[in-house]
Design a protein that fits this description.
By secondary structure, this protein is an alpha+beta fold. The chain has helices spanning 11-16, 18-27, 59-64, 66-72, 172-181; strands at residues 2-3, 34-35, 46-53, 56-57, 78-86, 90-95, 102-110, 115-119, 122-124, 132-134, 140-144, 150-158. The protein is globular, with a radius of gyration of 15 Å.
């Protein structure tokens, strides 16, 4: 299910700074993006550049994107954020997210024709600079049927009324990936 972005005060800051965020996204070398670890969802073609994980900034990534980081720091209850890129002819299969304590937001940065997002029974297309917010625990899928990559700033934030101490079960492969982003070693806890 999609939610009305007007319900969330921080959306205006994201949308008013979207061009600066897009400039930082476009300046990142492609080799800095990692394939999303849950490959069973996409088989290849979905890559990410993490900025925040487990509620904490990733220092080197945030230093590379200071304007984006500044805007993200204005979001109450931010738990995860990063750039998400779908390569041409990529389909993220229907799936259900694991984080029931958060909502997911996409700020579209580069959207060629032929891209879409289905959440439940509703399908929408991304519009550059206009946020989409949805419940990640509802079955959803995304696709890029174009010849160009699609890029969004993807983030999760605490649902209103959910205490900041709420914990979701994080899949092992996601926890391990977050650990790598913080420069940790296997077996060390992720913040």
């Amino acid at each position: 299910m999609f939610l009305d972005p007007a319900r969330f005060g921080f959306v205006s800051a994201l949308e008013s700074h979207w061009e600066a965020i897009r400039a930082e996204y476009l300046a990142l070398p492609g080799e800095l993006f990692d394939p999303w670890v849950q490959r069973q969802m996409h088989g290849g073609g979905w890559s990410v550049f993490g900025l925040f994980a487990m509620g904490q900034p990733i220092p080197a990534a945030c230093a590379a994107c200071p304007d984006t980081t500044w805007v993200l720091q204005q979001i109450p209850g931010l738990s995860m954020a990063g750039f998400s890129r779908l390569a041409p002819h990529t389909h993220v299969k229907p799936h259900v997210g694991w984080a029931a304590s958060v909502y997911r937001l996409h700020l579209p940065l580069v959207v060629p024709p032929g891209c879409g997002l289905r959440v439940g029974a509703e399908t929408r297309t991304w519009v550059e600079g206009r946020c989409l917010i949805f419940d990640d625990t509802v079955e959803h899928e995304a696709w890029n049927d174009s010849e160009l990559p699609r890029g969004v700033l993807l983030l999760d934030f605490l649902r209103p009324g959910v205490p900041g101490t709420a914990r979701d079960h994080v899949p092992d492969e996601v926890r391990q990936y977050a650990n790598q982003l913080f420069g940790g070693h296997a077996g060390e806890p992720v913040p």
